[in-house]
What does this fold into?
Amino acid sequence: MISRHKSEQLFEKAKHLFPGGVNSPVRAFRSVDGAPLFIKKGDGAHIWDEDGNQFIDFCCSWGPLILGHNHPQVREKITETLQNGTSFGAPTVLENELGQLILDRNPFIDKIRFVSSGTEAVMSGVRLARGYTGKNKIVKFEGCYHGHVDSLLVKAGSGLATFGTATSAGIPEGFTKETLVLPLNDEAAVLKCIEEYGHDIACIIIEPIPANNGLLLQEKSYLEFLRKVCTENNILLFFDEVISGFRVAFSGAAELYGIRPDIVTYGKIIGGGLPVGAYGASDELMACISPLGDVYQAGTLSGNPVAMSAGIAQLSVCAQDGFYEDQEKRTRFFVDKINAFAKANEIAFEMVTIGSIFWLTFGKHDAIRKADEIDASTMLDFKKMYGELLNHGIYIGPSGYEVGFISQAHTYEVLEEAATRFCEVLAQLK
It folds into this structure.
């Protein structure tokens, strides 16, 4: 059993400073046992907590650290930029460099706008969709998370095509009335919704690779269906690629599936883990954004030079030939070893994967494509497994609904060791 003495002390103090002792809810470890670990440092594929425990890290700051912790090129670029200051609230050449690096390799967007988070990117993209189309309603899917935007922090109501109901206090009912919530992987529900409300739907927003409520992999044909019905009904298709962008391919799921969204959003991966996000679209749509158009969006720290420099360093590595193929190959190596062990020992466990993302599932091994297909009782299995993984030096996100990530720093040697530890935990729990 690892010691959490210092983390426990720090958490008790934090409870007097922050709501629930944390600055983001999932960090509180409420889905698993014990106090959250207070992380002291990270390097490569490893992190260390304040008690001195070392872990192989598969959280990677929830995905952005695709090169691993403290990558030398990213660190050096940040340090170089810091010599000139931290923020100016004015244009810098670094914005141009990162923007060019992205747009030169992304055939799906003509222009991009940097913001400070994925939530801000989605919020701005929704406003753009409404401003461009002159329509009010948006369609989202149960099981997809798009940040803590009021109009998107909703869940399904009681019908097939329903107005959303808020999943947080403080959201006026009028906001949710403009959001329609549908089940994933259900073409009939989409068609019925469009038949009834299509005249006032500005966009259909989806995580093309839903990875915030399990890894709910959608078939390519379903995403192609969404593209088709959006085109036919003058509705914008909005890909929220805050997780999948630059993770499964340089241009994200749009590139992986060969489907062109009308609006796309990206998250902190484009800033090497520093606070940044972005949204992009065609020249025509982006011309609606202030100061060119009348859709207002602004941010003092948008295009912050430190975040831009980290992004340039990280994405320059990601843009190298074979980067994503190698990421997927090493991920499959890791996942296949664990799945083979579980199958050979008749353990009801399987890792689901795409690109360099994976998700731990328990119980039935049929493809899970909808949020309501997740058996909530299996979260007890995850809870038991989580504590043992920590004891075996493995760190993943502290929720069974969250996914894990492989970074470039996860070498075959590291993954071999991690897979062995995973299998030891599976055997112990059996």
About this structure: The mean pLDDT is 94. The two ends are 19 Å apart (CA to CA). The longest helix spans residues 323-344.
